Amino acid sequence: MATLRNLDSTLAACLMPDHLHWIVHDCSRLAALVRRFKSYSTRRAHELGLQGPLWQRSYWDRVIRTGEGLDAVVRYVLDNPVRAGLAERPGDWPWTIFPANHGQSGA
């Protein structure tokens, strides 16, 4: 997750066991950002002994056009570990990045 934290365009992110939610504010570079993250995380996983493909080739994206829409999506992303039973509160999941907990994530 360090690579996500270092990107200025990251507004929030949550790495789940089987998928990633990533909210960025500059979608003009989205394909490059996704490619960079997938490459970095795959290399790190292989260094740790994990084998095989880590990510699907494609990804799903959508544009958020309003402040209320952004607030709702950020809440959805941050609540994802709670809904999945992985954390009691959104801030408890160590693989979450949000401006309020930037230095606190386990990533």
Topology diagram in text:
Layout: H1 2-5, E1 10-15, E2 20-24, H2 30-47, H3 67-83, E3 96-97
Antiparallel strand pairs: 1-2, 1-3
Outline of the structure:
This protein has 107 residues and is α+β, with helices and mostly antiparallel strands. The protein contains three helices and three strands.
* Secondary structure: number of strands: 3
Q: Report the helical percentage.
A: 25-40%
Total of helices? 3
Specify the CATH class: Alpha Beta
- Please trace the helix and strand order, writing H or E for each element: HEEHHE
Instruction: Please give the radius of gyration in angstroms.
Output: 14 Å
How far from one another are the termini?
A: 5 Å
Mean pLDDT: 83
Spatial strand order of the main sheet: 2-1-3
Beta-strand content estimate: 5-15%
CATH superfamily: Transposase IS200-like
Biggest sheet layout: 3 strands, antiparallel
The secondary structure category is: alpha+beta
Query: Residue ranges: pLDDT <50 for 5 or more in a row?
Result: 101-107
CATH architecture: 2-Layer Sandwich
CATH topology: Alpha-Beta Plaits
Oligomeric state? single chain
User: What form results from the Cα inertia axes?
Assistant: globular
| Count of discrete structural domains | 1
